[in-house]
């Protein structure tokens, strides 16, 4: 009978049962996010100004003419990004938007696969469907597709950058980084990681590609100097709407400027101290160093710079994946309370408790990023103080029960949590 194929021929392991449960749930979640939520769209539409700019670029019309007094999405891409996005203007708006939804979803799925491979897992492991379901259940992936922006492609660029660095392909690692910076500089803080590793070759492509693309796009643009005089200054100004950074929420809630500055300095100090501890005691373990360091730097940029939006948080996926490592800094409940803050798709808006609901909704990603930075700093500092008290700083700061990876290699399968075959 047809149904006979679904009857197991032997007792299934826990891993097989979990995979049987999560694969259909994960696949249907992906389809729902793409075919229903993304196609339906929302009031916020990040793609409309991009498609309009691409069409104008192809017809040599002025692009950088936005009125920044409105709260509608604005076109903020560099001329190099306009050049890369120009093909979107070759077809009608609806088909072009659907095309970007498909490209974004595919990029996120491929990025998830690269993330699995970085940690030694394959498609046959139970980590694969769990990770796929977890990614597409988040606000960051859902709203990237619904609002139809380029963040899914940026995530893939981040994963390829980290993967190539881990594999020792320094020159090639700069290529995905350079392409993403050419569009927008979300991942630019990650260039501090190869700098700390004294690796110079990634900078060739990371700097060279945006420069070359800008040189090509500049004479093809109708108003390139308007980007410099009109758009670029706006990129460095904090806005008080749709902005979850400290300064954004500080302006929205009317905090005094000295308190906003003090909070930014405080968290910058925590980030610098954490980065020093990572550099001093974990640089030999590149998997841990790159994934934890990338999450720390990006969370800091979302929180401390002029603009931070919750759907940027997908760039923290490598950090969250470190939970499978024995020496992970996020194996504690405060870290996952923080993750709820910046990853959850829940809305706390309430008709009965309007003020509190709005505060919970608007501050949730800000508090999540803040708590994550505090957790990373606290765990690393505690490890340092314990190791110093036990007079074993020369052997690293990992807890004694957590055997660190020997110098010169990354963590292997034996150092990771087993997540299925």
From TrEMBL:
One of its GO terms (molecular function) is hexosyltransferase activity. It comes from Speluncibacter jeojiensis. Keywords: Cell membrane, Membrane, Transferase, Transmembrane, Transmembrane helix. This is DUF2029 domain-containing protein. It is a multi-pass membrane protein. One of its GO terms (cellular component) is plasma membrane. The chain crosses the membrane at residues 21-42, 98-115, 145-166, 172-196, 203-221, 258-279, 286-305, 367-386. Belongs to the glycosyltransferase 87 family.
